[in-house]
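Consider the tokenized backbone below.
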């Protein structure tokens, strides 16, 4: 399946919705090879703007989903009405649901041990019969080469179909990129704080707040000290995307 890409400040976002993403996952799992997926809100795009060295990592992903509503709106403005939000926690839940009949095996990497256990209970309650092949909460520090090799060996031994990586962005994207081909998993997906949200350890914004694109404000009010450095970049993001859209419009008129 060839999925178009939409350039947003040089980040190549995939023109997907949840249905397309699930179909692609199924193709990858029944096929061969190793793939990784980045879920991209505005702040991840700004990470790439501020650190261009991240661009090959995000753009090298086999799928880059529009995680935030502003990314969805920009995709539609750029001529892709089929695009809808593919948000990390929703992608995880939909994949667990979609994979039940297909017996997809899930592995969860990252977060705390407590969040992992609570997440497991939630998923088993919502999806009886779900196949969780493993869980691992690495230390919150740089790992030794021996620890890295142990993680690789443990995941490979569990033989999951989807590896869910919850290290936060951009750490998880760098990790997936660096481990591509070392871990024998058809699909790796970086889902940020999804483990905390789905386990109930962090409160998600109400659905209506998500739909109007104000989830960032809800999260900022919940964790101002931690998230202010991330969200203070949003005015610059808006300026840059308006500049990009105007530049694209002027170029189309010349052509």
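A designed sequence for it:
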């Amino acid at each position: 399946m060839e999925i178009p890409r939409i350039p947003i400040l040089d980040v190549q976002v995939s023109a997907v919705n949840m249905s397309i993403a699930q179909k692609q996952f199924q193709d990858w799992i029944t096929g061969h090879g190793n793939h990784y997926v980045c879920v991209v809100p505005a702040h991840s795009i700004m990470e790439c703007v501020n650190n261009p060295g991240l661009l090959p990592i995000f753009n090298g992903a086999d799928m880059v989903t529009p995680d935030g509503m502003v990314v969805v709106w920009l995709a539609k403005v750029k001529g892709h009405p089929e695009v809808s939000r593919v948000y990390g926690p929703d992608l995880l839940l939909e994949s667990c649901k979609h994979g039940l009949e297909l017996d997809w095996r899930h592995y969860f990497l990252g977060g705390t041990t407590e969040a992992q256990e609570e997440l497991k209970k939630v998923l088993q309650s919502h999806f009886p019969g779900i196949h969780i092949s493993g869980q691992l909460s690495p230390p919150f520090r740089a790992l030794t080469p021996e620890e890295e090799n142990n993680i690789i060996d443990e995941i490979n031994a569990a033989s999951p179909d989807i590896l869910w990586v919850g290290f936060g962005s951009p750490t998880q994207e760098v990790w997936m990129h660096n481990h591509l081909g070392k871990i024998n998993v058809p699909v790796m997906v970086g889902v940020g704080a999804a483990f905390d949200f789905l386990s109930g350890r962090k409160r998600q914004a109400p659905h209506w707040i998500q739909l109007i694109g104000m989830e960032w404000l809800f999260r900022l009010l919940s964790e101002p000290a931690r998230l202010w450095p991330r969200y203070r970049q949003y005015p610059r993001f808006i300026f840059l995307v308006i500049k990009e859209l105007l530049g694209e419009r002027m170029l189309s008129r010349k052509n």
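The chain is about 50% helix and 15% strand.
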